[in-house]
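re: ur question from yesterday

yeah so i grabbed the chain u mentioned. its 317 aa long if i counted rite. heres the sequnce exactly as i have it in my notes:
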Amino acid sequence: MRSRRTTLAVPGSNPRFIEKAQGLPADEIFLDLEDAVAPSAKEEARRTVVAALNEGEWAGKTRVVRVNDLDTHWAYRDVIEVVEGAGANLDAVMLPKVRDAGHVQWLDRLLTQIEGATGLPAGGIGIEAQIEDARGMVAIDAIAASSPRLESLVLGPGDLMASINMKTLVVGEQPPGYTEGDAYHYILMRILMAARANDLQAVDGPYFNVRDVEAFTRVARRSAALGFDGKWVLHPSQIEAGNAVFSPSQDDYDHAELILDAYDHFVTVEGRGAATLGDEMIDEASRKMALVVAAKGRAAGMTRTKRFDPPGAGLRK
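ran it thru and got these structure tokens back, copy pasting raw so excuse formatting
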């Protein structure tokens, strides 16, 4: 799994923004050919994106291009020109407004044809599916199972809110008058369940009030607590907060690694059916939970500060 704690949206038509993004600490950068690019600039933006992928310094970042949706006449040319021109330097294609499994399967087939024609590794380019309306939500299980290329499901809150007539004008915020619970809870859990059932990542959508980092952090903590892997960011000021929210704390990361070490020692080395870590009993369920936290910490580049010593030696830094 690629790390997607923060996914920075960058207009594909703005070379200055693209250059700046290369030096920012977001895990993923997606160069946008859809909403962020005016219709008159889309063809030139493709060329700008190809040049940026081939010539830019993207070390350590997941490189993604969001193409236009299938209801437009730009989509197929977006895919062909970007992948033929820079497929070797592209990790995934993001497809917006996915409403059924056939949308993803169309992109999968087109990518397969381009890879075959250009000598790129078969299946090497992943797909991110953006869920942006009621039809996509209803079909999300089929979408999540639609292609082995699929890597993540991404919430597109603005279009989704409009499609269900949600009464709010601030993307990512609770609708006025909704005072009981969280208006987005069902949507977030539905995306999460479909993602996890198909071994995919789940990425929360953007928060549009880009200067209010405190509010962004509050909203990000909601999806992080549920188990989402990351969130879109629209401004550099949101990146640090997003990376922190979607990374485990140092104590939790250390504890997860210790659980894995202890379980392996007692079950594999000593052949026991049960394991302990200090006064804590741990079992197979504990191991699975620890794997999740440890994987997030490793993907974030965290370094453990404690190590496991067999019983009698104690724990030391």
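noticed a couple things. The mean pLDDT is 93. also The beta strands are 6-11, 28-32, 62-66, 92-95, 126-131, 150-155, 201-204, 230-233, 275-277, 280-282.
anyway ttyl
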